[in-house]
Amino acid sequence: IAYCDTGSEHPDNKRFIQDCENWFGQEIKILKNPKYKDTWDVYEKTRYLAGINGARCSLELKKKVRQDFEYVNTDLQIFGYDFDEHKRANRFVENNLKLMLNFLFLLERLQNLIVWKFFV
User: Does the model's pTM come out above 0.70?
Assistant: First the structure.
């Protein structure tokens, strides 16, 4: 299990990560881009905040770090979005079609399992 640390998340995330480690019985690997302290550091060093292709901080602090990790450690990936982030989640699907094909297969299996447990 891995978590991309942007340096700009809510301070309670550290406690929540520890809770998750206890729930899962597994250590969560913290991934961080060593070039940047936080989202504003990305902006200050690149002079780019956000544009038509999204926010530079997301690319530098989440996507690149995640892809480097995936390159050597890929089994199952779960991405979290807030309930009202529909557009962001849809963009992720469009930009990561290969990952989404695996996701849809797993989602179908999970839905079948949930339905089976509900009716049994």
Answer: no
